[in-house]
Design goal:
Layout: H1 2-32, E1 44-51, H2 57-73, E2 78-86, E3 91-98, H3 101-105, H4 109-127, E4 136-143
Antiparallel strand pairs: 1-3, 1-4, 2-3
Helix pairs in contact: 2-4
Length: 146
């Protein structure tokens, strides 16, 4: 009986050690990962996806160039941006590079809203419509790795 109990205890300890190794092994990447707030000083890329119908693509590009380009160029921390358009999905992808998240997020939302309103007025006038046809599908941020 004593021998049987000792053997069960040894198996239990072995299983416990294996479980601990597996748990700590899987936690290693999480220890190296940093919360997004720690990236305030790192370069960040703003990602926007819009619905842009094919028949309004030229108007969208023109409004981006006339309204957003000059305003963005005047912003502290703005590094540049890229515009992409997917013909099949009729979606635009806008990637805006910022020197840091802190500089990007320091821009007052009220100021961004004024520029967005000018953009929408430009588009509505050009297309002779009452509503902005470029629906925002997604808004996010990307942090450069490595």
């Amino acid at each position: 009986m004593k021998f049987n109990l000792k053997r069960k205890l040894q198996r239990f300890c072995l299983i416990l050690i294996c479980l601990l190794v597996l748990i700590f092994q899987s936690e290693i990447p999480n220890l190296k990962a940093l919360p997004m707030d720690n990236y305030q000083g790192e370069m960040v890329m703003e990602e926007l996806r819009l619905k842009v119908p094919a028949d309004a693509k030229a108007v969208w590009l023109n409004a981006e160039k006339e309204i957003w380009d000059p305003w963005l160029s005047a912003q502290d921390g703005f590094l540049g941006r890229q515009l992409y358009w997917d013909k099949e999905k009729e979606e635009a992808l806008i990637l805006v590079n910022w020197k840091s998240k802190k500089l990007w997020k320091s821009i007052p939302i009220s100021e961004v809203s004024v520029v967005q309103e000018k953009f929408e007025d430009n588009v509505k006038t050009a297309l002779n419509v009452n509503k902005n046809p470029f629906e925002l599908i997604y808004e996010g941020e990307l942090i450069k790795q490595g």
